[in-house]
Amino acid sequence: MPEIILRHATHSDLDALIELEHQCFSEDRLSRRSFRRFLDVPRDRLIVADREGRLLGYCLVLMSAATRLARIYSIAVSPAARGHGLGEKLIRQAEYEAAEADRIVMRLEVREDNTGAIALYRRLGYRQFGTYRDYYEDHGTALRFERRILYYRPDHEFPPVPYYPQTTEFTCGPSALLMAMAALDEKLPLNTLEELKIWREATTIFMLAGHGGCGPHGLALAAWKRGFEASAWISQEGPLFRDTVRNEDKKRVLELVHEGFLHDIGQTDISLHHDPLTPEAMETALHEGRVPVILISTWQLNRSRVPHWVTVCAMDDDFVYLHDPEIDTEEGETVADKQYLPIDRRVFEKMSRYGRNQPLQAAVIVGPKRPEGG
After folding, report:
1. CA–CA distance, 196 with 166 (Å, rounded to integer)
2. CB atoms < 10 A from the CB of 150, how many?
3. Residues 6 or more apart in contact with residue 367 via CB below 8 angstroms
4. What pLDDT band is residue 119 in, cutting at 50, 70 and 90?
5. Which residue, among 88, 86, 62, 57, has the nearest Cα to 73 in the 3D structure?
6. pLDDT at 317
7. How confident is the model at residue 368, as a pLDDT?
8. Could you tell me which residue ranges the N-acetyltransferase domain spans (predicted)?
9. How many CB atoms are closer than 10 A to CB 206?
10. Share of the chain above pLDDT 70, in %
11. Would you state the pLDDT for residue 147?
12. Which is nearest to 307 in space by CA: 373, 199, 208, 222?
């Protein structure tokens, strides 16, 4: 029997891919336009199984631009070619190519009633880490699986950081701070009420459009008020985010809020540094059992230049591991997608600067609970 060759798909395979898609799926089919788009993204991989010019299967692997995650977006094997291990071969090739591209985790979704595929994934070492209801066109449930394909064991242990997703579009700062504080106090409440309380305490009132976001001064104060040690590292003096509003009255409000934060900080033992937090200082803080909350630009994640707060959970020679409180359910994201996100350290250095002309770098480091009365 002629050998099956695994290779990258080309635009000349489009007709065969569409035919295979219709053979394998009655719903949730990829369109010709979708296949063409994936073929045009250099970092993604569309691997096909070819026997003498006939396509017997494919595996589409998406590679995140900002993280070291890979995802099997779709896999199909022709009914005539099933039962001969072709699905496993496609998965193994997908893992190999993802590992060659320095991805450390492979993830995938599978229908909860697809017992054959689930058994294969488990046999290959995949573990279920989540469930996504109403995922398919017929409202079916997807099970989410993952397997680490590159391994790194950190030299030091870091305190585990619980995950808490923001429940509004404007409370990334409070949510990131809640995660940092909860890592140091397991009794800390993690709920929307506490999230909104912190937002009310830390908001800058105005920023961009819509509800105001939170700044490092306010977040440091919120941590201190809850009994934690806190320090703030800010590369700029003066009111932050002032250039994001055009109205002069709003600018004056930002100035007054900033003055209020500085006054309140002056009544505490919060350490205020007008310098950026270096990677070395951030790593030292983690080793000391402190948890950094960092302001980033989301450009590296989703091509949106929006200031966004995340929690740093761990670091090693290659990666900074983040809890990102924002979950985009419209894009199929779940809690598991935003925990311990591995970000290349070089990418993280770019992410941790907000703005173009004089980029802002801001961080709050949350330390252990202060002694009673401190």
Report:
1. 10
2. 17
3. 184, 228, 229, 230, 231, 288, 289, 290
4. very high
5. 62
6. 81
7. 96
8. 4-150
9. 21
10. 91
11. 87
12. 208
Asked if the model's pLDDT at residue 112 lies above 70, the reply is: yes
Helix (H, G, I), strand (E, B), or coil: what is residue 73? strand
Is the pLDDT at 34 greater than 90? The verdict is yes
Report pTM.
Answer: 0.67
Q: What angle do CA 310, 343, 169 make, to 5 degrees?
A: 30
Give 93-130 as a DSSP string. HHHHHHHHTT--EEEEEEETT-HHHHHHHHHTT-EEEE
* Other Cβ atoms within 10 Å of 244 Cβ, number: 19
DSSP of 173-211: HHHHHHHHHHHH-TTS--SHHHHHHHHHHHB-S-SSSSS
- Report the distance separating Cα 92 and Cα 39, nearest Å: 20
Query: pLDDT tens, 339-364?
Result: 888 788 888 998 898 877 778 899 99
Q: Answer whether 5-148 and 172-369 agree in fold.
A: no
Residue 205: which residues within 8 A CB-CB, separation 6 or more?
212, 250, 253, 254, 257
User: Which region among 101-110, 214-223, 260-269, 350-359 has the lowest average model confidence (pLDDT)?
Assistant: 350-359
61-90 average pLDDT score: 91
pLDDT of residue 152: 44
* Token output for 116: 């054959």
Residues 221 and 199: their CA atoms lie apart, in Å, by: 11
Q: Which fold does the domain 172-369 belong to in CATH?
A: Cathepsin B; Chain A (3.90.70)
Q: Would you state the structure tokens that stand for residue 249, as one six-digit string?
A: 């009255």
In what order do the strands lie in the sheet containing 228-234? 271-273, 228-234, 362-369, 291-297, 307-315, 319-323, 341-344
Delimit the domains of the chain by residue range. Answer: 5-148, 172-369
**From residue 188, how far is each of 184, 201, 216, 261 by CA, in Å?**
9, 17, 20, 24
The CATH number of the structural domain formed by 5-148 is 3.40.630.30
